[in-house]
């Protein structure tokens, strides 16, 4: 086990003042069988009264409204998390895993994913878990990490065609392949030591347990990771969703620091 201290900071700068800014944040780590949240602090500027709730996936949400005009929106979350308590989470009963077993908006297979799957050879004796680990290793080998070639809207099929992308793309491709074998898989957003930004990985279900796989780094998820949220794909785990009144464009700066205490 480790005690990890984190700082997650997002700064949104608007080209002109905006108002009636409604936002929903998913940036607070969750408690589960693998990690315990020792403490958290949340700063939002301009200061505003917020409401905390839990979404249908069990993720923490914070939402609020900034009525007055503002040119910047700052969110800063700090805290400490005890990680590596266990290497898996308990899964829901099999009959409740359907949403993670079939394609979602970002993970529907097209010709590229189907051709890639057909090119793979699995031994008959391989368990679902072994297949997931095999796919993680294979994707790390066959894909190239490159920023700027994909966007937040890029699907698994589009990224597979490019055979390059970032952690979101690696995660969506692995999820798509696992679901093609009817193995439940979900998208995870969190933080890790040494990354500098938020990070995305995959959890696959095997024998009633969720196991974390990080295809970007080709490692099993463990005590160097802090989990924030999970869902069917990126769309269920967006860190900040918001609407405002105004014609402004916006610039986003994110800084994430995770270190062992």
CATH topology of the largest domain: C8orf32 fold
Domain tally:
2
What sequence of helices (H) and strands (E) makes up the elements?
EEEEEEHHEHEHEEEEEEE
Question: What is the CA-CA span between the terminal residues?
Answer: 12 Å
CATH-defined architecture of the largest domain: Roll
C-alpha Rg (nearest Å):
19 Å
- Text of the CATH class of the largest domain: Alpha Beta
What is the overall shape? globular
- Tally of alpha and pi helices: 4
Which structural class is indicated by helix and strand composition?
alpha+beta
What is this entry, summarized?
With 261 residues, this protein is α+β, with helices and mostly antiparallel strands. It has helices at residues 111-119, 128-142, 156-162, 167-180, and strands at residues 2-25, 36-45, 51-54, 60-66, 70-83, 89-90, 144-145, 164-165, 185-192, 199-206, 209-214, 219-220, 225-231, 240-245, 250-260. The protein folds into 2 domains: 2-84 and 239-260, Immunoglobulin-like (Sandwich), CATH 2.60.40.2250; 89-236, C8orf32 fold.
